[in-house]
Design brief:
Elements: E1 2-4, E2 7-9, E3 25-30, E4 33-38, E5 41-43, E6 58-64, E7 67-72, E8 75-77, E9 81-87, E10 90-95, E11 98-100, E12 105-106, E13 111-112, E14 116-119, E15 122-127, E16 130-132, E17 137-142, E18 150-155, E19 158-160, E20 164-169, E21 182-185, E22 188-190, E23 195-200
Parallel strand pairs: 1-4, 2-5, 3-6, 4-7, 5-8, 6-9, 7-10, 8-11, 9-14, 10-15, 11-16, 14-17, 15-18, 16-19, 17-20, 18-21, 19-22, 20-23
Antiparallel strand pairs: 12-13
Length: 203
């Protein structure tokens, strides 16, 4: 599957079917192999105006249960919800994307979306991306369903002027997870309005 040079916008504004998880995606790829998502722009996807509490948020680029994935040189902005989601996937490279001005604040429902949200799976590299001006965490990494993920690499990313630079949760520690789970180098978490680095053991 190759999705390239697309402009995807204005999806899901009137979504209300939370039980069906219809959340207003720009791009959505699920249960697929050899996925390439490059040079796309996704914006203004998700319920608008945002209605809380509903448990509904949109996503610019939503990927779930995939393998051998490249997400490169995309711009995801001004969505009601996350910029990029990588969930329960493996052998993934998220490289050189720009994610900004997304409304990630679902705190009325007790959670946050992320500029990029990585959850579950294994062998995922997030590299050379720029996350800024998001209303929530620029980067979010979680173990929501206790799947024991491993092989995450976070390198050369910039996360600035968000509410949080990075939010890490459900790894059973208030410190960085073990290096078998998450390796990190040369990332910048600066100038975020609430906290640059937020790590909680359970959430």
């Amino acid at each position: 599957i190759t999705l390239k040079n697309l402009i995807v916008n204005e999806n899901g504004h009137t979504v209300q079917l939370k039980d069906w998880e219809f959340e207003g995606y720009g791009i959505h790829v699920e249960d697929s192999k050899r996925v390439i998502i490059i040079n796309n722009e996704t914006y203004r996807n998700g319920p608008d105006p945002q209605i809380m509490p509903t448990y509904l948020m949109g996503t610019g680029i939503n990927t779930y249960a995939n393998s051998d994935v490249l997400i490169r040189n995309n711009i995801s902005h001004d969505n009601i919800g996350g910029g990029i989601l990588v969930e329960d996937s493996h052998n993934v490279l998220v490289d050189s994307n720009e994610v900004y001005n997304n409304d990630l604040n679902a705190s009325a429902d007790g959670w946050w979306d992320g500029g990029i949200w990585l959850d579950g799976g294994y062998d995922v590299i997030i590299r050379d991306n720029n996350f800024y001006n998001n209303l929530g965490p620029g980067i979010e990494i979680s173990n929501e369903d206790f799947q024991n993920p491993y092989g995450y690499i976070l390198e050369n990313n910039v996360s600035t002027n968000n509410y949080y630079g990075i939010f890490v949760w459900n790894f059973g520690t208030n410190e960085w997870p073990d290096s078998t789970i998450l390796q990190r180098s040369n990332n910048q978490f600066t100038g975020n309005s609430i906290q640059n680095i937020w790590i909680v053991d359970w959430y």
